[in-house]
Write a structure and sequence with these properties.
The structure is a single chain. The protein is of the alpha+beta class. It folds into 2 domains: 3-42; 46-168, Lipocalin (Beta Barrel). It is 20% helix and 41% strand. The protein is built from 2 helices and 8 strands. It has an 8-stranded antiparallel barrel. The protein is globular. It starts with a helix and ends with a strand.
């Protein structure tokens, strides 16, 4: 028996034979290979992005709904925020929005992405801007599923970026 197998068997006393070890390692390998494959299928159809997601940005949770526009693009709009009210009991507003006409929008109604396009050749969504209300910035956006219920969003400006993950709700 190989050194590594012996170490694992000693570490996990429930494993008694080399055959059990092979089965366990094969299951782990299959699980690792299957997860991206399942997510890849979700990137095959633009409408798979539709639905509701839980986000966590800096410890503040919110829920976002992705909808389809008549032109085939997608929007993402906040519909729930964990801490909706400020210390005075007033609904918080989008005060950092670069568009001054939108600074009076309630934080639970902010449109984060407008006009997101599905790019079939790349099996991802992009060609739009994502808005970060915590910074008041709009940056280039791409999105793709990395797990069956995990959407990866990447925002970049001048080559510098940040990656966020939204969890799709059932």
């Amino acid at each position: 028996m190989c050194n590594i197998c012996e170490k694992i068997i000693n570490f996990a006393p429930g494993i008694k034979t080399k055959e059990q070890m092979k089965k366990i390692l094969m299951m782990i390998f299959c699980a690792m290979m299957l997860t991206p494959a399942l997510a890849q299928g979700l990137n095959d159809n633009g409408d798979n992005i539709l639905g509701e997601y839980l986000t966590d940005r800096g410890g503040t949770k919110s829920k976002v709904r992705v909808t389809k526009n008549s032109d085939g693009t997608y929007n993402a709009q906040v519909f729930w925020v964990e801490n909706l009210y400020d210390a005075d009991g007033n609904k918080r507003k989008d005060v950092k929005n670069p568009d001054k006409s939108l600074r009076n929008v309630d934080v639970d109604q902010i449109i984060l992405v407008k006009g997101l396009k599905y790019i079939a050749e790349d099996k991802e969504w992009g060609d739009a801007k994502i808005y970060d209300p915590t910074l008041g910035l709009k940056v280039n956006a791409t999105a793709e599923f990395v797990e069956p219920n995990k959407l990866k969003l990447r925002g970049t400006i001048l080559g510098i970026g940040k990656t966020l993950y939204w969890t799709k709700l059932e």
